[in-house]
Amino acid sequence: MIRRAFFAILIAGFACFAAELKLSSETIEASLTIDKTQISYGSSAEAEVGYSAKGEEVISRAKLEPGSDKITLHEKSRSGSRLVYEIEPEQTGSFEVLFKFVYTDFEDQEVVQPFGKIEFEVSSALSDEEKSTLKNKGAEKLVNKISPEPEPAEVPINKLAVAAGAAGLALAAAGIWLYISKRKKNALQEVKYVLPHKSAYKFLEALKFRNLPQNGQMKEYVYILSNLLRSYIQVRFSLPATDMTTEEFLEDAAERGIFSAVQNKTLQSFLEKADLVKFAGFSPSIDQAEEMMDSAKDFIRTTEDYNFLVPEKDAKTIGKPLEAEDV
């Protein structure tokens, strides 16, 4: 009985996070499965589409489309009648997305069939206090809120030990030993460790909150975004990415063999686009700016390591570009 109840609760829990839609018409059968609908900014979900034709219907160039700009779909793979996409949220909060199955039929006509709506709940990477700081004081004031440096604990000195005689000397020695032990313990407690990719997602969300591309501040946006990614790489991989040119940085990374071929390609494309904006006067469209943000998040996502922790003060440096005043 207990085991059945446990599995019932477990299944109900999974049902809260996963979603499935079916599509059936005279010409096709299709299904859409999403592994989770509750995600956080910076993370992603996976969607899988399976389909088959009925009768003489022909399905070619099939794809899944979202009827909303609140999420972005990235195709991961396709094999036969199976499509796999990565779902990336573009904003936080609760919202519905209408998914559509689009394909070309035997008459070479595009056919759009709606799957239906799925509700997503996207939580912020920021805490309530951090969001309040972001809203009321601005992104540049958020850095210290996200990564505050711990204050050293004060350890009182036993003055009686100083004035004591022979017995007091022994007591003083014991007190010194306890003092040193406590200082060591406090030193360990004072240093807090965090996951650098989690801090990076928070800073990217803070940058997105500023709406710089929409306000015509494209160069400032790209400058900060580029330096945020470089700062993350510097903390995550101990590469002096913020002090190198793009060419020097990519050469150094290649010599060390740090990144995979896919990561290298993503990083090179991102940095070259950023350099065009910073040094060649190129002004990307808002869509292109959002694509750069997606590329930065995608790169960070591929480098996540939950066993790699850094001191909080180091993670703080990732967000320093948000404090830039002159670009």
Structure description:
Helices cover 45% and strands 24% of the residues. With 327 residues, the protein is an alpha+beta fold. It folds into three domains: 2-123, Macroglobulin (MG2) domain (Immunoglobulin-like, Sandwich); 128-149 and 192-323, no CATH class; 159-190. The strands form three sheets. A five-stranded antiparallel beta sheet has the order 1-2-4-7-6. Strands 3-9-8-5 form a four-stranded mixed beta sheet, with no helix packed on it. It is globular. It starts with a helix and ends in an 11-residue tail after the last helix. The relative contact order is 0.11.
SSE inventory with pairings:
Blueprint: H1 2-17, E1 19-24, E2 28-34, E3 38-40, E4 45-53, E5 60-66, E6 71-79, E7 82-89, E8 93-104, E9 110-123, H2 128-137, H3 142-146, H4 159-163, H5 166-190, E10 193-194, H6 196-209, H7 218-237, H8 246-256, H9 261-279, H10 286-302, E11 310-311, H11 312-316
Parallel strand pairs: 3-9
Antiparallel strand pairs: 1-2, 2-4, 4-7, 5-8, 6-7, 8-9, 10-11
Organism: Sedimentisphaera salicampi
Keywords: Membrane, Signal, Transmembrane, Transmembrane helix
Protein name: Protein BatD
Keywords, separated by commas or semicolons:
single chain; 327 residues; alpha+beta; Immunoglobulin-like; 5-stranded antiparallel β-sheet; disordered N terminus
